[in-house]
Design brief:
globular, 13 strands, seven-stranded mixed sheet, 3 helices, about 190 residues
Length: about 190
């Protein structure tokens, strides 16, 4: 992993673009996987740590294991894998935590956003899909750690749903100020 500034001549995938999928065969990556001319970017919630991927992820997955549940505070973590050299830190540096003898996870020390997962001795590193500026660019094709899937996880899509503007009162909306970094480099 190398640190470098953003080039004015980089071509980044626009919102809604990135890894393309054949809609007739959901889950099958086509045309963008592993390409070096695809550049995705992302970062943490507060904006102190930003990164760039020089190439499309070659594998996208979710993990249900207990370590991922603890690291995310949620039922799963979602990852997009690239070669180690394809990840460049463009602003700040993440903190790291060895969650086992084999795995290191990187995160923003200021806001806590989980950013990466990697096998310490492996050639790849995975960024968290939620930290991508365009998380739709990476659709998972495999689940890991399924023996730890929470019993209620498969029922989530059947729960009633509300849009944010349906439960935030006008008074709260008028007072709301977001401190989250935007989904692009600044």
């Amino acid at each position: 992993m190398r640190q470098r500034g953003l080039s004015k001549h980089r071509h980044f995938a626009p919102p809604g673009r990135g890894v393309r999928y054949d809609q007739a065969r959901v889950g099958h990556e086509v045309d963008m996987a592993g390409r070096d001319d695809v550049h995705l970017a992302g970062g943490c919630q507060c904006g102190r740590v930003r990164y760039e991927l020089s190439g499309a992820p070659d594998h996208v997955s979710v993990c249900h294991c207990r370590m991922c549940q603890k690291a995310s505070g949620g039922p799963i973590m979602a990852f997009a894998r690239v070669r180690n050299g394809a990840l460049s830190w463009t602003r700040g540096q993440p903190a790291s935590f060895r969650s086992s003898s084999l795995v290191e996870r990187q995160f923003c020390a200021a806001c806590g956003t989980p950013l990466t997962y990697n096998l310490i001795e492996g050639p790849n590193i995975s960024v968290t899909i939620g930290s991508l500026d365009d998380p739709e660019a990476a659709r998972p094709v495999l689940q890991y750690g399924i023996e730890h899937t929470l019993s209620w996880f498969s029922t989530i899509t059947r729960l009633p749903g509300k849009r944010t503007d349906e439960f935030i009162t006008p008074d709260l909306a008028a007072r709301f100020v977001g401190y989250q970094h935007p989904d692009h480099d600044t």
